[in-house]
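Every protein is a chain of amino acids, and every chain bends into a shape of its own. The protein below has been through that process, and both of its lines are reproduced in full.
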Amino acid sequence: MTVLELDREALTRCIDACDTLAGDMEALLVRARTELAPDNMGFGEGHLPSAAALTEKIRVNATAAIATLDANRTRALDMRAEFAKALAAYDEQESMTAGSVAAVSADIS
């Protein structure tokens, strides 16, 4: 007979870790959007073609970094949702099992 056992505390810690990671990624996203891709880099990009080219390269890399941070935040939120669903399903099954055991115990008594 196979017994499925779930460590409720470990699953709760995973949910909390996902919340922390998503929050950290959100904070980095805010910072990246303001610090990595400002409207004016201050290189003289409005006057010098070489500065404009450099600014464009920086913006491309900043955009990639922002997309990566956003993807990581989204993944953390998705993982959190899956952990929460697993915990809810476990709790529901545990409640139904306890109810069945109580009913059988009442019938036996």
In short: The longest helix spans residues 49-108. Helices lie at 8-35, 49-108.
